[in-house]
Specification:
alpha/beta, Rossmann fold, 2 domains, 5-stranded mixed beta sheet, 60% helix, 11% strand, Resolv_N, Resolvase homolog YneB
Length: 243
């Protein structure tokens, strides 16, 4: 299993540097005993009450990309404290990442209180997701009532023109992107409505749309410039005729 070692101290005092080294040594030994492959060692000096630590953000990126199976920490306080700790436990559990600690010499058990809080968080998150999707669905239904066609898409382009093109609602992609959605979020939203949408496909369609819009705007500018020149030439011709 692929493991990430996470070490943390709260201050930048010299003795804390020794603590970081000791944490790493203990966790590397635990990884070897457990047969884990250490793919990353993250060490940082930061408060455990902060959830947006640089090391934690790096850890979550690795988890999001599916590159981590287990996280190794010295003890549960190294992961975080207070709400930050619960938020990180939730993120790890949601992504199926196991938590091992040197203090337990194996997988770290959660208390009944922790399990209850995590269950509540999961329920609230699922409700928010359904509510969000319902809002998007109502928005699409209103758009269809105003004449929007979900099957509309861009023309086939490039060397993939011979393959069956996946139909996606480009207007909805553009609208969600304008609201700050990532391409992964947009793809997940479209899949919930039955579209076969991957992050790469959504990104490609969005880029094609933006390129086409830019080309249309450039063409309009050139056409306007040509008309202005024709009008200028015509006026100059009239003046010459009067003379």
């Amino acid at each position: 299993m692929r493991a990430v070692i996470y070490c943390r101290v709260s201050t930048d005092k010299s003795e804390q540097e020794t603590s970081l080294a000791r944490q790493r040594e203990e966790l590397e030994r635990l990884a070897a005993e457990s047969g884990f492959e250490v793919v990353k060692v993250i060490a940082e000096q930061a408060s455990g009450y902060e959830a947006d630590r640089d090391g934690v953000l790096e850890l979550l990126e690795l988890c999001e990309e599916g590159l981590v199976d287990v996280l190794l920490v010295q003890d549960e306080t190294r992961l975080g404290r207070g709400h930050a700790r619960m938020a990180l436990l939730h993120c790890l559990k949601k992504r199926g990442v196991k938590l091992y600690s040197a203090s337990h010499r194996g997988e770290m058990p959660l208390s009944e209180a922790d399990e209850m809080v995590l269950s509540i968080i999961a329920i609230v998150e699922e409700y928010q997701r359904k509510l969000h999707n319902a809002k998007i669905k109502r928005g699409m239904q209103r758009a269809i009532a105003r004449g929007y066609r979900p099957e509309r898409n861009l023309r086939r382009q490039g060397e993939n023109a011979g393959r069956d093109r996946i139909e996606l609602p480009i207007e909805e992609i553009v609208r969600l992107r304008a609201r700050g959605f990532t391409f992964a979020d947009i793809a997940a939203t479209l899949r919930s409505f039955g579209y076969e949408a991957s992050k790469a496909t959504v990104h490609r369609r969005y880029q094609e749309y933006m390129d086409e819009r830019q080309a249309e705007q450039s063409s309009g500018y050139e056409l306007g410039t040509e008309r202005d020149q024709e009008y200028t030439d015509e006026r100059q011709g009239r003046r010459a005729a009067k003379r």
